[in-house]
Amino acid sequence: MLLLAGMQSIPVELYSAAEVDGAGYWQRFRHVTLPALRGMLFLILVVSTVNGFLMLDLIYVLTMGGPGNETTTLSWLGFQTAFQFFKFGPGTAILYTITVFCLILAVIYQKVVFRKLEAEQA
């Protein structure tokens, strides 16, 4: 849905200008669509990464980390350490580590997605 909203926000004039310049389908996609969707792609990457690492609610509701420990993730481990074993320090450390890791990945995503724009501005 987010990509659809991003694609609908791209002005039709950009595609018309590219077509007049002789750009084919793939050239229009590469030079018009992808640059216009960079911000939206960045948002989708960051939100999907954070949701993937911090998927506590779904695991808690569906399996409670079971059967056995088959669906245990780092976020579930942090929750379990803090609230089932009452080791709040280690549980908080696990969850803060996941948060810092997600932040580092977001910075890497930002560098990769917007690297061409940074090169043009320099």
Helix/strand structural class:
mainly alpha
Q: How much helical structure, as a percent, in the residues?
A: over 70%
Which spans of ≥5 residues are poorly predicted at pLDDT below 50?
A: none
Order of helices and strands: HHHHHHHH
Number of helices: 8
Rg result = 21 Å
The span between the termini is: 34 Å
Keywords:
122 residues; 8 helices; single chain; mainly alpha
What's this entry about, in short?
This protein is an all-alpha fold and about 120 residues long. It has helices at about 1-10, 10-20, 25-35, 40-55, 55-60, 75-85, 90-115, 115-120.
Describe this structure in words.
- By secondary structure, this protein is mostly helical.
- The protein has two domains: 1-36, no CATH class; 38-121, no CATH class.
- The chain is 77% helix and 0% strand.
- The chain contains eight helices and no strands.
- It has helices at residues 2-8, 12-20, 25-36, 38-53, 56-62, 74-83, 88-113, 115-121.
- The chain starts with a helix and ends with a helix.
Give the topology, please:
Blueprint: H1 2-8, H2 12-20, H3 25-36, H4 38-53, H5 56-62, H6 74-83, H7 88-113, H8 115-121
Helix pairs in contact: 4-7, 6-7
